[in-house]
């Protein structure tokens, strides 16, 4: 099967590269991991996107998570239009912010108070500042392969050996700041315990994606999150669940609702903005009351609690409150998982699928994937022709083997079966 010509995307990408660094406003969109010209999208509808050359694709990128109801769901679109007609931003408080905050407090178990910001990055940066303010400590622990946005303190990788001080992952991140970020291994409690033991009274917070969604989809092993809770309590550190991806995605109340482990703070984003830019951090009132102007920890934003974003978010969360939504998403995810595994088995391609509800990642690997090391050991080279094989068959995947695939209520059984058929063809060809 030959790649279909996409002259309009190519022309746009050429123009963009002269105007925007790398031609994109967020790096993964440049298709560096898979090669070729990124599909430039003209419009989205339900589970589909249509590109500027007129091709239609079943979309499994879904803006990396926010679009639980597919593209352009009527309820969210109408809410945005109605809000826009009343003005786009005021710099004064509104009723919409109170509505969205009430929804989040009602539905996310650990949240007594919440502050709205404009992105997941802002949410994690603010939660970290709050944890530092609360504890009077400077260091934090994060996990290799977890992503918390592009704040300086989070753009840090493990040095040689897991139990070393962090090193900057990007030029421009001060070494002195990176050294405050200690990097442990996801799903390895002993690596966290060792860092606590080596750094008594220094660690302000542990940041974790409760389901690791930025190295595919890796669920926590039994006891891991419980162990983090226990270690943080014992050492007086703030436990932060970064549920920017999993919040309202894997359950209304995020992964904490599914696992029953309560963090001190949670960061949210994506779904709560219904596809418009948003972020949030929240938790126990005692902590959140330290945020300005209630308390001394400063954090602010011109467009925070933006009327369009909160209207879209409220409409989205209202729909997600309907009975059966998450059961339906679970069934959709399970159907795709079964189909992918069957297709892989048929063609003798080793595959394991990491999945929690409607987020999933098929790894070309022969055995279970529970650590970042397992992820890196999966067959990334063979994943590239798989990506292009899917594209040629009308399925748009995230252009990296480490990004999760996202489903929505708009992905019905027939759509999923088309994805499985495409996978059957693509796997046969690699
Ligand atoms: N945390 C997690 C877990 C994320 O997945 C992301 C983005 N994918 C972020 C934080 C950063 O969010 P944003 O891109 O909105 O800044």
From TrEMBL:
PROSITE patterns xref list: AA_TRANSFER_CLASS_3 (PS00600)
UniProt source species: Engelhardtia mirabilis
Predominant place of localization: cytoplasm
Enzyme class: isomerase
Upper lineage: Bacteria, Pseudomonadati, Planctomycetota, Planctomycetia, Planctomycetia incertae sedis
CDD domains in the cross-refs: OAT_like
Primary gene name: hemL
Record's protein name: Glutamate-1-semialdehyde 2,1-aminomutase
Enzyme Commission numbers on file: 5.4.3.8
Superkingdom field: Bacteria
Keywords for the protein's UniProt record, in alphabetical order: Cytoplasm, Isomerase, Porphyrin biosynthesis, Pyridoxal phosphate
Subunit description: Homodimer.
Cofactors (names): pyridoxal 5'-phosphate
Similarity comment: family membership: Belongs to the class-III pyridoxal-phosphate-dependent aminotransferase family. HemL subfamily.
Biological-process GO terms, alphabetical: protoporphyrinogen IX biosynthetic process
List of residues that carry N6-(pyridoxal phosphate)lysine: 270
Location(s), subcellular: Cytoplasm
Known catalytic reactions: (S)-4-amino-5-oxopentanoate = 5-aminolevulinate
CC annotations in GO: cytoplasm
Segment forming the signal sequence: none
GO molecular function: glutamate-1-semialdehyde 2,1-aminomutase activity; pyridoxal phosphate binding; transaminase activity
Pathway it works in: Porphyrin-containing compound metabolism; protoporphyrin-IX biosynthesis; 5-aminolevulinate from L-glutamyl-tRNA(Glu): step 2/2
Keyword Isomerase: yes
């Amino acid at each position: 099967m030959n790649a279909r010509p996409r002259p309009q995307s190519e022309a746009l990408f050429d123009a963009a590269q002269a105007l925007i660094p790398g031609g994109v406003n967020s790096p993964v969109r440049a298709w560096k991991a898979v090669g070729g010209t990124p599909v430039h999208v003209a419009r989205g509808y339900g589970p589909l996107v249509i590109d500027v050359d007129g091709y239609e694709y079943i979309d499994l990128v879904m803006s990396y998570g926010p679009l639980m109801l597919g593209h352009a769901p009527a309820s969210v679109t109408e809410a945005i239009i109605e809000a826009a007609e009343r003005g786009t931003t005021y710099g004064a408080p509104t009723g919409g912010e109170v509505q969205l905050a009430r929804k989040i407090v009602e539905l996310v178990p650990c949240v007594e108070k919440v502050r709205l910001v404009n992105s997941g990055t802002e949410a994690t940066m603010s939660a970290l500042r709050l944890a530092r303010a609360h504890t009077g400590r400077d260091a934090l622990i994060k996990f290799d392969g977890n992503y918390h946005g592009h704040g300086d303190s989070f753009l840090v990788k493990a040095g040689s050996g897991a139990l070393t001080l962090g090193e900057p992952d990007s030029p421009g991140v001060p070494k002195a700041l990176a050294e405050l970020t200690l990097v442990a291994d996801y799903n390895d409690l002993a690596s966290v315990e060792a860092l606590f033991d080596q750094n008594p009274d220094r660690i302000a917070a542990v940041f974790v994606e409760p389901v690791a969604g930025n190295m595919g989809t890796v669920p926590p092993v039994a006891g891991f999150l419980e162990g983090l809770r226990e270690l943080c309590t014992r050492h007086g550190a703030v436990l932060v669940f970064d549920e920017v991806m999993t919040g309202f995605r894997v359950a209304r109340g995020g992964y904490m609702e599914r696992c029953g482990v309560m963090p001190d703070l949670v960061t949210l984003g994506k779904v709560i903005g219904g596809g418009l830019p948003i972020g949030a951090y929240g938790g126990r009132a005692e902590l959140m009351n330290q945020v300005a102007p209630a308390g001394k920890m400063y954090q602010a934003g011109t467009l925070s609690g933006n009327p369009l974003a909160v209207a879209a978010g409220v409409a989205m969360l209202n729909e997600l409150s309907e009975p059966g939504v998450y059961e339906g998403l679970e069934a959709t995810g399970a159907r795709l998982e079964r189909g992918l595994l069957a297709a892989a088995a048929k063609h003798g391609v080793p595959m394991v699928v990491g999945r929690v509800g409607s987020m999933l990642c098929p790894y070309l690997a022969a055995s279970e994937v529970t650590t970042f090391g397992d992820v890196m050991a999966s067959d990334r080279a063979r994943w590239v022709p798989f990506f292009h094989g899917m594209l040629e068959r009308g399925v748009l995947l995230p252009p990296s083997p480490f990004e999760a695939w996202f489903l929505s209520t708009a992905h019905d059984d027939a759509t999923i079966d088309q994805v499985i058929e495409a996978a059957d063809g693509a796997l046969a060809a690699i």
